[in-house]
Inverse folding.
């Protein structure tokens, strides 16, 4: 297809897709959220239930009522932020401001601390500082956490969790509940003393390097909230995918909301190791302040059945915050699973499928998803070789509103949607078996669940060699298997 024709379709598609998000008819449950007039609201909804759309419609209604209102919409990641910004431009570019948490917090913190810039640690920095901290504690203790390298990843996550909970001293850490922490490593009171010692040394090393972690943004701002200027505050604060924000991040965002505060969340899509109760955030969810959306309007019955079959293996279904799925009435094709003899045959089959999709439906979006960028980059070269137009959906890069092929990862696809979804490389990676405890598998399962539920109409899953254990968890009656 000529590039000029693709551009024309893109512009038309962008306008129509964003218009649909703003204008389509809402259900009674969704209308309740849009029209709710209380100061605080928790919106719980399954994948595809319209949480983002409802927040945007609520924002539009507020702007129509008060043309001077300032609304801050905080999204989970940069790709979702870009998606929401496109729609926000049509709702109220002078009223509705879309951010990721860290995107907003960087500016607010720099201003509050009167700094020209902040030097943020890299992953490499963090590993080095943690290694140094463990070495210092090892001089006085032979505890397994400082003598065994395998605990490094856990300790790094625990430091992030300590900051995310806003814990300020050893006594608080020794008494705080770790329910929901999601770690398979048992931690005793004595262990906590060692861990907190490592944490303090890590902080000392980091301070000496004159650097700051992204995890420090929220707590530092919360401790200096009187210095946050009005230009960084909003009349209304709305949060999408709130289950993956840290406790202190949510507490901070609650503090900058002058009039109203709304959190949309789905614990079934929780992919980060955060733990908090809504009471700890400081919001009251009782007395009608919680609204629940159980219906999926994105995907067909067949796709939701498949996703639900996988989710039944997740411990989240026993959580009181879990929202059960009501299957959609509208139907579509049964998802396909392709067993390929090799990686090369898999990639060739995917490229052929994409060609057919583009020829038959040039106005549709095709999301090509994988767990990591390595697989996506490999397929990128295969598409390049066939001169198939495509774009990456990565941070601020790419536009999910326009038709065509979109390449992205499970993480970056969260909150987005595509007409067709192709998921590749769902093979069993035996090399990482030692690291794959139940905690690890819970996160991987939710990532696959999120990715399956990005598909609106049609879904294909591919693997070569042996299928992943997660693919085996899905009821085989809910898909058609093919061999290539």
């Amino acid at each position: 297809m000529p590039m000029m024709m693709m551009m024309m379709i893109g512009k038309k598609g962008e306008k129509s897709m964003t218009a649909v998000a703003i204008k389509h008819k809402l259900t009674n449950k969704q209308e309740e959220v849009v029209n709710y007039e209380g100061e605080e609201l928790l919106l719980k909804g399954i994948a595809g239930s319209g949480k983002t759309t409802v927040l945007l419609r609520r924002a539009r209604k507020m702007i129509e009522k008060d043309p001077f209102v300032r609304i801050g919409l905080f999204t989970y990641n940069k790709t979702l932020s870009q998606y929401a910004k496109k729609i926000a431009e049509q709702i109220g570019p002078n009223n509705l401001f879309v951010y990721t948490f860290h995107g907003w917090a960087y500016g607010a913190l720099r201003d509050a601390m009167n700094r020209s810039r902040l030097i943020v640690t890299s992953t490499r920095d963090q590993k080095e500082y943690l290694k140094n901290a463990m070495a210092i504690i090892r001089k006085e203790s032979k505890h397994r956490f400082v003598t065994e390298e395998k605990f490094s990843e856990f300790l790094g996550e625990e430091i992030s969790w300590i900051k995310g909970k806003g814990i300020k001293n050893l006594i608080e850490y020794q008494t705080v509940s770790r329910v929901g922490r999601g770690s398979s490593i048992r931690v005793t009171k004595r262990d906590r003393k060692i861990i907190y010692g490592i944490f303090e040394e890590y902080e000392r090393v980091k301070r000496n390097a004159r650097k700051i972690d992204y995890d420090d943004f929220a707590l530092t701002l919360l401790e200096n909230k009187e210095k946050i200027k009005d230009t960084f505050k909003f009349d209304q604060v709305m949060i999408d995918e709130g289950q993956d924000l840290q406790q202190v991040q949510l507490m901070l965002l609650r503090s900058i909301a002058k009039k109203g505060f709304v959190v949309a969340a789905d614990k079934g899509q929780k992919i980060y190791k955060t733990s908090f109760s809504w009471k700890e955030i400081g919001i009251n969810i009782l007395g009608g302040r919680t609204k629940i959306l159980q219906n999926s309007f994105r995907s067909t019955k067949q796709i939701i059945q498949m996703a639900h079959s996988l989710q039944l293996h997740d411990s989240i279904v026993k959580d009181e915050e879990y929202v059960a799925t009501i299957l959609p009435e509208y139907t579509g094709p049964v998802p396909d699973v392709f067993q390929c003899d090799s990686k090369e045959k898999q990639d060739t089959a995917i490229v052929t499928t994409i060609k057919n999709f583009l020829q038959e439906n040039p106005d549709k979006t095709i999301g090509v998803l994988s767990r990591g960028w390595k697989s996506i980059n490999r397929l990128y070269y295969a598409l390049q070789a066939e001169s198939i137009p495509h774009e990456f959906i990565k941070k601020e890069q790419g536009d999910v509103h326009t038709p065509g092929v979109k390449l992205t990862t499970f993480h970056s696809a969260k909150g987005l949607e595509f007409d067709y979804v192709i998921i590749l490389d769902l093979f069993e990676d035996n090399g990482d078996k030692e690291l794959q405890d139940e905690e690890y598998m819970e996160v991987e399962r939710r990532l696959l669940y999120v990715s399956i539920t990005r598909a609106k109409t049609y879904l294909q899953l591919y693997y070569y060699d042996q299928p992943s254990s997660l693919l085996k968890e899905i009821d085989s009656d809910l898909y058609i298997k093919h061999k290539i």
About this structure: The first strand starts at residue 40 and ends at 45.
